[in-house]
Each structure stands twice: as C-alpha cells, then as structure tokens.
Amino acid sequence: MFTCGPSVYQRAHIGNFRTFLFEDILARYLEYTGHVIKRGMNFTDIEDKAIREAQKNKTTVEQLAETNIRIFVKEMNILSMRMPDYLHKASECVDEAAALIKQLLDRKIAYWHKENVYFDPLKFSGFGKLYGLDMSQWPLKKKRFHKDTYPGTQWNLGDFVLWHGCKRGDKYCWDTKIGKGRPSWNIQDASIIRKYFHETLSIYCGGIDNLYRHHDYTLAILESVRPYAMAKFWLHGNYLYVNGRKMSKSKGNILYVDDLRKQGYDEKEIRFFLVYGQYRERMNYSDRQMQLIADKLRTFKRLMRRIDARSSGKADSQGKIVQCLRKSFRRHMDNDLNVKGAFDELHEIVSDVKIDELNPPAASGIINTLKEIDEVFKVVF
Predict the structure, then answer these.
(1) Angle 265-307-358 from CA coordinates, rounded to 5°
(2) 40 φ, ψ (degrees, to nearest 5)
(3) CATH homologous superfamily of domain 2-108+184-241?
(4) pLDDT per residue as tens digits for the range 286-315
(5) CB–CB of 68/7 below 8 Å?
(6) Which positions ≥6 away from 232 have C-beta within 8 Å?
(7) Hey, how many other C-beta atoms are within 10 angstroms of the C-beta on 65?
(8) Which of these, 279, 211, 204, lies nearest to 239 by C-alpha position?
C-alpha cells in the first residue's frame, strides 16, 4: 500500500489530514480483517514550490522541509496515526529517480530537450486511463510543460518534465548518472515505489486532486519500465471545505490541528471529526458541525463508561450484542469504508442496551469488542 505524502513546502492543514486519516483507517481496518500491511509514504521536499517558498522566507529548502516535517510527525502522533513502514523524503531517492529516467530515455519514452528531460505520453499506450482522459483531444502540435505543478484542475495536454537540468545559479542540484539536476515532482513517487516495492501494489491512495496531472503520470512512468500493473486499486479522498469554500491562503480560511485544539477540542475529537464520513464524499467544516460531531463522540464515550463500570471477570465474547456489534461494523466498513455508517449503527446498538440489567461478563464482552473496533477508529478508548 502506498499513500501520497505531504508536500512539505508548507504545513499540513486539516484538509490534508483528512486524506491521511482515511488512509490510516484503511490500513487499520485491513489489519482488523486479518491482512498484513506493508505501507509506504513520501515527503515531497524538493520541488518548484519549495524553492520559491524558501526564497520568500529567506531560508533553505532543507530547513523549510525539516520544520514542516517535524510539525507533521508531531501531529501524526497527536491524531493517533500509525507511522508507515517506509517514510522517506524525495531528496533521499534522487539516484533512484535518475536511474528510472535513464531507463525511460533508453526506451525512447522520454527525451532530452535542452537541459531538461520530458516524458512523451503518446509513447505510453493507455495514457490517462486512470482519470479517463479523452486522448482524442490531444493537440497535434507538440507542447512541453516545464513546471512541477500547475494551478487548477485542467489537464496539461503535452509532454511533462521528469528532470530539471542544473542551470547557472541553481542551488539545488545533484550529481547523477544522467548529469546534474533535480527530479521533478512527478518522478518522485515512482522512484520511491520502485526502490521499496517490487510487485503490483494492492492499493494506491491519495487526495482527489492527485487524479489530475499526477497519478496517471506516476502510473505511466512505472508501467513503462515494469512488466506488470502499478496497482490493483486506486482510492482517492475527497476535499474538506470550510464553511462551504475550499481552503486557501487567499481566502484566509486554512485551519490547522492547533486551531481546533485551541477551541477546546481534544485529539480524539479532532480525529473523529476528520474520519466521520465516507472518504469519497466531500466534507464541510463549520464551528456548528464540529461541535455536533464532538458531542456525538462524547455521548458515546459516556455510554462506554457506564458499561465499563459493570464489567468484570471473564468476558462473554459470543453474546448477542457482541455479535451484533461485529457484524454491523464489518457490514459498513466493507461498504467502501463507510466510517459514519459504522459508527452511527454502533452508537444505536449501544444506546439500546439496558445497561442497568447487564451482567459483568456481558458488559466485559461489549467493552472488549468495542476496544477491538476502536483499534481501527482510535477515537474512544
């Protein structure tokens, strides 16, 4: 399983964490159902945006990245996110990127133009298949796109950059087998995956914005040099809006984990808000919605404390309520990871329990079962 990590030219906001938390829930649920997970994630620490942001802040790309990585890892821990098995910076895999580019050059799928290397999508059969790109609209006149990323959600119909050759005055260049320069954004994930995963990935995850001009690029790069599919399943988390609008610096509506903690919410309530939904659906933050969802969790936890107060001795692990909880949880989570549906039905089942009539083994069985389920949610105990 590979998940697109953060671009660390800036601090991750709660919209970014919504995606990372859905991936965390996915990995935990797969383990709950008996799978063994090998997971990778990357830090994009070297790209056009990072260089511009470092210049703007009068710092270095390295210092900028280290600051934001440190905050990100701290907030991963606050939100009970499990560390991936492989979590590497793109700048640590430059040689792998250069070796991959050399293979593409040797196969005439990529080519030099001046000091840069570009990938020709017309040399890869099925380009755009993940997104469903209409290749009949491809321009007859060759175009090249030189930047790592472009604003908006329109496709760049042309050749995309793989390698930025070193120019006079460039501070961020590596000596490699293909010369001096730095890898583009779109080669970075591919190079990390190629280094650590040597078979078709079971699952590839990211935010829905990665469907434009990124994941199809990564797929085309890797499938051009490997005789097997890149991934069996592709999962994309939808946006988190704030009061009905996309988060952006220009709108002044970016929210961070710290902002919600300052409002009095604890780490479990923040995690719960960000996972309480279905990952493909757009989510909206508002003060009112945050309060309602936090209150829902608090009510559930009060029920847990009442049941726990009656638990003792050997747990009844096969009781009717226990079996109902497990079955309900599996049914909703197997339905494309419907966390909201799963939690709401668990809440409904527990609310109907006549707690004052529970015997200690039955109470222990309910608590133990919900603790097992909460190893996926990580919001209750």
Answers:
(1) 160
(2) -120, 150
(3) HUPs (3.40.50.620)
(4) 999 999 999 999 999 999 999 999 999 899
(5) no
(6) 200, 201, 202, 203
(7) 24
(8) 279
What beta strand segments (E) does the chain contain? 2-3, 40-43, 86-89, 110-113, 116-119, 144-145, 159-165, 174-176, 179-183, 201-207, 231-237, 240-242, 245-246, 283-285
Q: What are phi and psi of 264, to 5 degrees?
A: 105, 5
Beta strands in 173-292 (DSSP E): 174-176, 179-183, 201-207, 231-237, 240-242, 245-246, 283-285
The two structure tokens encoding residue 112: 């030099």
Domain edges within the chain: 2-108+184-241, 287-381
Residue 43 β-bridge partners: 89
Tell me the whole-structure pTM to 2 decimals: 0.95
In tens, the pLDDT along 4-53 reads 999 999 999 999 999 999 999 999 999 999 999 999 999 999 999 999 99
For residue 71, give the H/E element and its range: helix 61-78
Count CA atoms closer than 13 A to 301's CA, side-chain side. 14
Residues 163/101, Cβ–Cβ less than 8 Å: yes
As a whole number of angstroms, the distance between CA 68 and CA 75 comes to 10
pLDDT per position as a tens digit, 196-206 = 999 999 999 99
